[in-house]
Amino acid sequence: MFPTSQLTDADREAGLKWYVRNGMFFKIMETLSIGVFLTAYALSLGASNLVIGVLAAIPSLTQLAQLPAVYLVERIASRRLVAVSLTLASRLLLLGAAAAALLQPGPAALLLLVIAFAIRYIFGAIAGCAWNSWVRDFLPPERRGVFSAQRLTWMTVMAAIAALAGGVFVDNWTGLTGMPQIYAYSALLVLATFSGVLETFAMAQIPEPTPLPPEQGPDQKTSLFAPLKEKNFRRLVTFLFSWNFASHLAAPFFAVQMLRQLGLDLTTVMMLTALSQGANALVTGTFGSLADRYSNKRVLQFAAPLFIACIFAWTFTSLPERHYFTMPLLVVIHILTGIATAGVTLASGNMANALSPTNGATRHLALVAAFSAIAAGTAPIIGGLYADVLANYQISLTVNWRAPDGEHVIPAFDVTRWDFYFLAATLIGLWSLTRLDQIEEPSQGGQVRMRKELMMGVWRGVQTASSIAGLKAVSDLPIALITERLSRQKKPRTGKDKAGPPEDPAG
After folding, report:
1. pLDDT, tens digit, for every residue of 10-38?
2. Fewer CB within 10 Å: C terminus or N terminus of the chain?
3. The pTM is what?
4. Residue 217: how many other CB atoms lie within 10 Å
5. Dihedrals φ, ψ of 4, to 5°?
6. Could you tell me where the DSSP H helices lie in 141-217?
7. Which domains does the chain have, with CATH numbers?
8. Chain-centroid distance, C-alpha 80
């Protein structure tokens, strides 16, 4: 559990394999315990929009625990010991969230769910402070993008499989067991706990290099915020703050939009999620290579605007009800979001590492995590507070078409409820792009050349995937199932029928 002064090539290669396995088990755990499944679980327990926002904010706000954790990590000889022990504790707390299903849906069950997740993420944040510093020293700087991409690729593949399997599991739970559907979400949390234990075991197998002494002045020894005196680092923090606020203002309500406003079942939602994860996995490796060759900033300049465009496109998924183009639009949105997320996730994390000092990066990374957490944590709470208020407002744009057979009114644009957040997130996201342009990072080659190589990399990925027996069929499954459901879908529900999932947990 203690650092090694000299890592051999064999030690590093073995550690890399465990690094990838750790990511795979982590992603299975996260997929089954948060996101759409957590939202649906909370709705079954009677959660309001505010509670949904609070649950979405917890993973981010608890990252503030990294600030005091810096002093702990800098004073303990083994970062691995801190990360492994607290990661295991955080994963076992998922069992507390699972136990909420045993209570009557209502305030008590929701309180247990919120408390369990809050404590879990506090432990995870402290562990993450040690983990980020540890992994930064473990990964070779010249190959950081490739290594991170390999891990992220396998993570997204496992997320897609877990999402699709979990959706089918939940939708068929009552028919197979005769038990209320709410217990299916509890079972998923138990499975997530098991995957989290395996994740922790894989983490423990990764060697830890001996940390170098921090390069710091007298004020840095006393001030946690001393890195903010660096102009370029402040620019990075400003970009990440505004970006995380924009993305987290809208993202928590994507699932609510699909489940309540559009009336989609959980299997369909998870098919779309799996499709997004598949697109993510297809391009992650290419983004990693491009980040190493051109710069993280170049990758972000491509991926971030694409993500913002996808957020804006959500306003057209209902006009204000589900329409003929809703499902095709959702398919396109999820594919492009998967591509954009791959670039943003990889490049933003690597940029924070790249702009931190070689020695003593713990404080820099903790500040990045803290400011990102404040933005990502406050945004969904604001969204949850005002969701019901904005439900009473509506902005519509229609097209009047006059023909010999009469006059037709065609809805072109309709903003209501969560659409207001999608628009606000779009505007804030556009402003964040101006902050990104101010960040200085050495780069090679232009944006146009990088885009061409990205397209070529995606095409090669498609060809590779299609050449493996059976893999093409697997990749086509989500689209095929969505198409089948689209052909069988009924007319959009109106009136009381469109209110969302039934209150009966067994529904």
Report:
1. 887 888 889 889 999 999 999 999 888 99
2. C
3. 0.70
4. 10
5. -110, 130
6. 144-177, 182-204
7. 10-208+223-489 (1.20.1250.20)
8. 25
